[in-house]
Every structure is written in structure tokens, then in C-alpha cells.
Amino acid sequence: MSSDADRSSPASQDSSPVVDGRGRRIRLPSGDGSADGQLSRVDALPDDAEFALCLTHDVDRPYKGIRSLYYATQERPRYHLRTALSSSNPYWQFGELMQLEDELGVRSAFYFLDEQHLLADRPVSEWVSPSNWVQHLGRYDITSNEISAVIQALDAGGWEVGLHGSYHSPTDRDRLRDEKRELEAVLGESVTGGRQHHLRLSVPETWHHHREIGLEYDASLGSTTECGFHGCYQPLRPFDDGFVVFPLTIMDQALPDPGTSFEAARRVCERLLTEAAANDAVMTVLWHPRYFNEQEFPGHRTLYRWLLERAQELGAWIGSPGAFREAVDIDGADDTQPTETQSAGNSVDGTSPTAPRANVRDRP
User: Fold this and answer.
1) Positions of the region Disordered (predicted)?
2) b/e 299-329 (16+ beta carbons within 10 angstroms → b)
């Protein structure tokens, strides 16, 4: 691990706010306990790791299908029309992704989406919007034989299966609960965490909902357009209990295109990896499975492998957010589970918490 001299000061690491998926800037703690609205953090790393790299994959659209027609209007019409007529499915990359991670001895989290049906579940007023049609095209059924088999294979192989909360669910606790139960019925065991679709997050309302339906962590806080730590090197504990928020450091689409600017994308990853190692950070990355299709997203598979291999060289612990949470034994370190009423005055609501900054396990 880095020495205290090498590590960034609390003030420097908190100098910029986290930016959520809708561009809102969210104030984070100052680290010295002096600022109002301080959030406690998970100030620990598994084993003797230099830093942690949490791997996540949002399963938005495992089938390309009719979306090929839409893409054909945007670029490369011959290719996209050919995929529309082909029996092959270029977005089905589960086997390739699992093989890549297995070769490197790592595991990740896959978040599955139970999206609403536009015509059956959404108001008629939304039917006339082209953006809504694009949003709902490619919706899949997590109870189908093919998807169920993938979910069970991931679980059997040691990967984490989590919830990808649907587009309209951030403020709908009942919807989130139903989606979680549906996924658990397929998985055959409890789901402990996930991420909201499009990083749509209402702070702190969505986290209250996650916590109350039994989720132990959320990985939605971050930016769809900018890579970086956004002012926070450690996961947050917004309610000073076992519920953890993993800020997103890298989303695939926010990087320079590795198909045309591979070295630029690699340099961004290198900079963030070395920054993570220098600050004992927890770095969370998101690669959508479809980005491993080299025909449409060249360079991403190679870059992802390089990222993992470089992190291993730098002494990182690598795994899913759920595995990280278990490795630092957050529940064992803090058994307090405040009720929703007790949590209403916590730091994410803009008032000072009563609990001090928490250490799960002190770092050397």
C-alpha cells in the first residue's frame, strides 16, 4: 500500500464533487470532519492489496435484434442491416467475457435488467416519443430459458448476479422490490446489490429504497461522460450502517474510443490505476457485455484485458462489489441497521450525521 506521504490528502481527494448520471453535482465529505453533510466511508482494503478494482457489467441489451434497423440509420447501414437479417446475435458476449475473466482468475458482477414494456406498462402519453421506443427496443425477459441459463451459469461459476434497476424505478420502491424478487426467483438466492439503468439516481431516495428492499450496496453514483474518482477514493456509507455506495470510476462509453484512439484510452486507464494505487482507492469500472463485440466496438476487449492485467501488476485486489463488501467484512464491523426514519436526517440529506467517520479495518 502507499505510504501516508504518497497518499493524497483528504482535502485534495474531496476537492471536486461526484457527478451523477444526470449531471447533478453531489457534495461529498471534507474528510476532516469539519464540513456539514459528511458521509462515512469504507476505509479498508481486502488483505494486503495496494488498491481494489471492482468489475461490473450492465446487461442492458443482450439481443441486438430490431435495434439493428435503428443503428442502420445512424452509421454503417450495410453491416447493421446484415446483422438484422442474420440468425447470429453479436451482442451475446457472455461466453467470451466469462472466458476472458476466467483466464485471468478474476470474477465480476453482472446486473440484469427487468425493463417495463412500453405498451403494456407505460402511459399512452409516452408512446408517441421516439426516444421511448428506442429505450424499450431490445427489452428482454429474465425468465426466458436462455437468460435464465446464463444467470445460473454465472452464479455457478462464481460471478455475482445483481439488479439493474429499470429506467423508471429510482423513485418507485414497489417496482424495485418486484424486479428484485423476479431476479431472485430465477437466481434461486438473494440479490445483494446492483446499479440503476442509465445511472438514474435520486439521492437519497433511491438508496433508501434499495436499503429497505434488502439490497446491501448500490453502484449507480457516477458519470456517463467523464472518467475519474470525482472527489472520492473510497466507497460511501450514507446511512452509517452496512449499506455501501460504490462510486463509478470508468464507464466504457466515457473513454476515448479504443477502436480509433487506443493509446489515448489506455493512458486514461493507466492514469486512474496509478492514482488508485497511490491513494489506496476502490476503483469501480463498467463494461457493457455488448462492447466485447469486436465488429462494432473494436479495441474494447483488448483494453479491458489490459486493464485487468495492469491492475494485477500494480497489486490490486480484483472482484465484484459484492465480493469486496464480504472481503472487508462490513457487516461484521458495523451491525447497526438504522430504520428509515432514523436515517432521514443523515448526511446525504444535507445534515450532519451523528456517527463518526467509520473504519472497517484500519489500513497500515
Assistant:
1) 1-40, 329-364
2) bbbebbebbbebbeebebbbbbbbbbbbbbe
CA distance 200 to 319: 24
- Cα distances from 290 to residues 29, 59, 306, 361, in angstroms, run 36, 8, 18, 37
With beta carbons less than 8 A apart as the criterion, state whether 212 and 173 touch.
yes
Q: pLDDT band for 331, please (50, 70, 90 cuts).
A: confident
In Å, how far from its chain's centre is CA 175? Answer: 20
DSSP 108-136: -EEEEE-PPPHHHHS-GGGTT-HHHHHHH
DSSP tally for the chain: helices H, then strands E: 14, 13
Counted residue by residue, the chain has a size of 364
What 3-state DSSP class applies to 236?
strand
The set of cell numbers assigned to 44 is 479498508
Assigned superfamily of 10-339: Glycoside hydrolase/deacetylase (3.20.20.370)
Tell me, yes or no, if the pTM score tops 0.90.
Answer: no
Instruction: Specify the pairing of strand 51-59 against strand 109-113.
Output: parallel
> Residue ranges per domain, the chain?
10-339
